Amino acid sequence: MRRRDFIIKVIAGSVAAWPLAARAQKSSSVRRISVLMSTASDDSLGLAYSAAFAQGLQKLGWEIGSNIRIDYRWGSGDTERFLKYAAELVGLSPDVILGTAASIVRALQEASRIIPIVFVTTIDPVGSGLVASLSHPGGNATGFIAFEFSLSAKLLELLKEIAPGVNRVAVLRDPTVPAGSGGFAAIQTAAPSFGVELTAIDVQSADAIERGITEFARAPNGGLLVAGPTSSMTQQRDLVVTLAAKYRLPAVYHSFAFAGALLAYGANSIDQYRRAAGYVDRILKGEKPANLPVQAPTKYELIINLKTAKALGLAVPQSLLARADEVIE
């Protein structure tokens, strides 16, 4: 089993029942935290994220069922659910809310401009109107950026490095969110210098993804990459990896969440949830989100899967292997 898969399973399994425990006890001194996740309730990655957040709180002295209560809602990548659950959670009058995507934070801010919000794995919070600036958010939200648009161009560079024969690239994007449109624009800007032709595939449904990749794979020398870590893309990650393997498409991704990926390069999302616990702690102790700067990732990780490379008949350059943080054999 891959080390990262093992970590996710352990983290998720160890505290999958914590939300139930959070509802087990009540006390007038208990602080209330609401969490609106973008994934489904049975998604292993979503469980690992929520567990990392809870573990971060524990290290800071917060004990579920003792001095804090956590109420979870799971959006399953559905914007209508985001709106519904945002209203539900605001109605519980929590002390602070953790939101896990820009579309979720927008829904929460529509429901309340007063309750403090800490966001994670969010893209372009200034352009999305979530905060006034990164250094001085100015409203009721602050948090952690997971992705910068320039990273999409870096993914294209890595795809050409690991599969130099690729001259056609299918870009999976969600055009309804900044991460999708902004990421694709960055790839478009970089594409001429790498001599590749781009094809955009929208990811708003499984059928659209399957049709798009199947059609794209009919011609040779194709590769695949994802334009930004959006909620819709995360929901369809297993389908994308399966189709890439089926049609023998070299594919690079922004996250190790795409199990079986040829190459992944991006921020450690689990670490962001742990760091978010620190901001929640500070807010519970009296600080204002308006005064807490939005933070960028502290480290990007490069992960290469040699098993997938071998299946595709690719020889991974030693120069690339030397830069990898993890090599899966």
Please tell me about this protein's structure.
With 329 residues, the protein is an alpha/beta fold. It folds into 2 domains: 3-146 and 268-298, 3-Layer(aba) Sandwich (Rossmann fold), CATH 3.40.50; 150-266 and 301-328, Rossmann fold, CATH 3.40.50. 43% of the residues lie in helices and 20% in strands. The chain contains 13 helices and 12 strands. The chain has helices at 3-14, 18-22, 44-59, 79-91, 102-111, 150-162, 178-194, 206-216, 231-235, 237-246, 269-284, 306-311, 318-323; strands at residues 31-37, 68-74, 96-99, 117-123, 141-147, 168-173, 197-202, 222-226, 251-253, 263-267, 300-305, 326-328. The strands form 2 sheets. Strands 7-6-8-9-10-11-12 form a 7-stranded mixed sheet, sandwiched between helices. Strands 2-1-3-4-5 form a 5-stranded parallel sheet, with helices on both faces. Helix 6 crosses helix 7 and helix 8 packs parallel to helix 10. The relative contact order is 0.13. Mean pLDDT is 87; it is low at 14-27.
Strand-helix topology:
Elements (H helix, E strand, L loop, with lengths): L2 H12 L3 H5 L8 E7 L6 H16 L8 E7 L4 H13 L4 E4 L2 H10 L5 E7 L17 E7 L2 H13 L5 E6 L4 H17 L2 E6 L3 H11 L5 E5 L4 H5 L1 H10 L4 E3 L9 E5 L1 H16 L15 E6 H6 L6 H6 L2 E3 L1
Parallel strand pairs: 1-2, 1-3, 3-4, 4-5, 6-7, 6-8, 8-9, 9-10, 11-12
Antiparallel strand pairs: 10-11
Helix pairs in contact: 1-3, 3-11, 4-5, 6-7, 8-10
Number of E-state strands: 12
Strand order of the largest sheet: 7-6-8-9-10-11-12
Q: Gap between N and C termini, in Å?
A: 10 Å
Q: Which sequence of SSEs, written as H and E, runs from N to C?
A: HHEHEHEHEEHEHEHEHHEEHEHHE
The CATH C-level class name of the largest domain = Alpha Beta
| Mass-distribution shape | elongated
CATH architecture verdict of the largest domain: 3-Layer(aba) Sandwich
The overall pLDDT, averaged over residues, is 87
Low-confidence stretches: 14-27
* Cα-based radius of gyration, to the nearest Å: 20 Å
Query: How many domain units?
Result: 2
Q: Hey, roughly how much beta strand do the residues contain?
A: 15-25%
Structural class: alpha/beta
CATH topology category name of the largest domain: Rossmann fold
Helix content: 40-55%
Largest sheet: 7 strands, mixed
Which homologous superfamily in CATH is the superfamily of the largest domain? Response regulator
Number of helical segments? 13
